[in-house]
Every structure is written in structure tokens, then in C-alpha cells.
């Protein structure tokens, strides 16, 4: 499958706090890790007329990264965002084409027929202002959903040692140190060799759209904060860039949280 996206478009009536409630509830209701990327156009200097219109109308969308069933997601969206206050859209460039409740929702909520482009794959990147919330079920109860660290991925293990799968939690033993596959769910994990290695930050250069590549597993990811964790291998990454990218400074916060979790 090629290009694929999964997102929610939300009504201007939804308060900002509801997004956090959505993340907190997702964290409590399921076992899989989910990242919610909140996108708006507030304060952006835009040139394209259709994007300017979206800015004027207060369009916001939530990009969904991770596995969550439609039934659970829809139930939680009704409870946190409010019934009829959201549209679910999922599409790829092959056969997948889901829009619930339907394109007519956009016209009803925003009083225009000029926002249907929001339902398609972006041919040209749009300069969304983005921030992320992290629904990571394995994290300590006291950790906020704004903290981009999944402790299940800070695993330290060696060959022939028992280890829990960071995805499903099943315990198994691998013959390898650096890479192992859960016999239950098939998740491929990359444990760290020591606590010191798990705590280590690696610098990653970003492009003009805040995308960078993990130096450990080569996974491409978009940054909304200065420090992020690769959700494939668990490496903590610190962003650098020659471009004027907007990033929230959070490296010290992550350093403290990870040190408390793993021990100094």
C-alpha cells in the first residue's frame, strides 16, 4: 500500500481541552500505543486561497498514528469531542476510501462546499501548525499525554533473557540481543544493551517540514517537539535543523523523566 492517512476533522465548537481528554481516554481503554497529531492553521502566513479559507473557518484536524479499532475510536470521540462534532476519514491511493459520516458533514458544519479537499491525500504539503499528544498505555499513571516517551520501548535486554513485547506485553525469550520478534503478535523490537544506551540522545537533522530519520533504525518521522522518541526502535532523538522549524523545547523534561524511570 502506498500513501495512507487516517484522521479526524473536528468542529470549531470542540474546545481544545477535549483533545487531551481524547488522548487520556484512548490510553486507558486499549493496549496499543497511539499518537494524535493536532493540526491547525492559527497564526500561519498563507498564500493559497483555499487554505486561507480553512484558516478563517477555524479548521482543525487530528492525524491518528497507531492501531485502534473504529468502534472504540468512535465511542471515545462521541464521549470526548461530542456526537456530530467530528468526521472520520481514512484513505490510501489504492482501494481504501472511508468517510464517516460523509462529505456533507463539512458543508453543514462550516457552511461551505469549498473544503472537500480536506478529504483527499495532500498532493502538496500544507503548512499545518502541529502539536502531538501521546496515548501510551504502558507509561506511569503520573506521566502526562504531552510527554513523547513510550517506556515499553526503553527496554534493556540481552540474548536468552526473558523480555515483554512492547506492543502486546507477552513475555518471551530471544536468541538475539539487538532485534527480536514476538511469537504472539509478530512485533519486531530492538532492545537496548544497557540503561545508559537507552537514555542516550542522538541528534537528527530535520528538513523544512520538520521530518527527520532515526539514526538507529532509519525510520522517518515528523517532529513537533525538540526531543522525540522513535516509535519503531525507542531511540530518543534531539532535532537540529538549518530551517526555521517550530519546535517545543522539551529535552530537559525528557531527560529527567527517563532518568527517573530507568534509574540514574
Question: Measured on Cα atoms, how large is the radius of gyration?
Answer: 19 Å
Element order, helices and strands?
A: EHEHEHEEHEEEEEHEEEEEH
Q: What is the SS-derived class?
A: alpha+beta
- By oligomeric state, this entry counts as single chain
What profile does the largest beta sheet have? Answer: 6 strands, antiparallel
> What form results from the Cα inertia axes?
globular
Q: Low-confidence spans: pLDDT under 50, at least 5 residues?
A: none
What key phrases describe this protein's structure?
single chain; 264 residues; alpha+beta; 6-stranded antiparallel β-sheet; 21% helix; 25% strand; globular
Task: Write up this protein.
This protein is 21% helix and 25% strand. It has 264 residues and is of the alpha+beta class. The strands form 5 sheets. A 6-stranded antiparallel sheet has the order 5-4-1-3-2-6, with helices on one face. The chain is globular, with a radius of gyration of 19 Å. The model has no long low-confidence stretch (mean pLDDT 93).
Topology diagram in text:
Blueprint: E1 4-10, H1 17-29, E2 34-40, H2 49-56, E3 60-65, H3 70-80, E4 86-92, E5 97-100, H4 104-110, E6 129-135, E7 162-164, E8 171-173, E9 180-181, E10 188-189, H5 195-199, E11 201-205, E12 211-213, E13 220-222, E14 227-229, E15 236-240, H6 251-262
Amino acid at each position: 500500500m502506498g500513501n495512507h492517512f487516517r484522521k479526524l476533522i473536528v468542529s470549531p465548537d470542540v474546545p481544545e481541552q477535549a483533545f487531551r481528554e481524547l488522548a487520556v481516554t484512548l490510553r486507558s481503554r486499549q493496549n496499543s500505543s497511539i499518537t494524535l497529531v493536532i493540526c491547525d492553521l492559527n497564526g500561519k502566513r498563507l498564500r493559497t486561497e483555499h487554505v486561507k479559507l480553512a484558516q478563517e473557518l477555524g479548521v482543525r484536524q487530528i492525524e491518528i498514528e497507531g492501531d485502534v479499532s473504529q468502534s472504540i475510536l468512535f465511542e471515545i470521540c462521541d464521549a470526548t469531542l461530542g456526537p456530530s462534532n467530528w468526521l472520520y476519514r481514512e484513505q490510501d491511493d489504492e482501494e481504501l476510501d472511508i468517510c464517516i459520516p460523509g462529505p456533507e458533514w463539512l458543508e453543514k458544519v462550516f457552511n461551505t462546499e469549498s473544503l472537500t479537499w480536506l478529504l483527499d491525500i495532500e498532493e502538496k504539503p500544507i503548512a499545518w501548525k502541529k502539536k502531538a499528544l501521546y496515548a501510551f498505555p504502558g507509561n506511569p499513571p503520573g506521566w502526562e499525554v504531552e510527554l513523547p516517551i513510550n517506556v515499553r520501548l526503553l527496554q534493556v535486554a540481552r540474548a536468552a533473557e526473558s523480555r515483554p513485547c512492547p506492543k502486546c506485553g507477552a513475555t518471551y525469550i530471544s536468541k538475539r540481543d539487538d532485534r527480536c520478534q514476538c511469537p504472539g503478535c509478530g512485533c519486531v523490537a530492538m532492545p537496548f544493551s544497557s540503561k545508559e544506551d537507552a537514555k542516550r540522545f542522538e541528534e537528527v537533522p530535520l528538513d523544512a517540514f520538520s521530518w527527520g530519520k532515526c539514526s538507529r533504525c532509519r525510520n522517518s518521522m515528523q517532529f513537533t517537539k525538540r526531543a522525540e522518541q522513535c516509535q519503531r526502535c525507542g531511540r530518543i532523538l534531539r532535532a537540529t535543523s538549518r530551517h526555521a522549524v517550530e519546535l517545543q523545547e522539551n529535552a530537559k523534561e525528557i531527560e529527567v523523566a527517563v532518568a527517573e524511570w530507568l534509574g540514574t
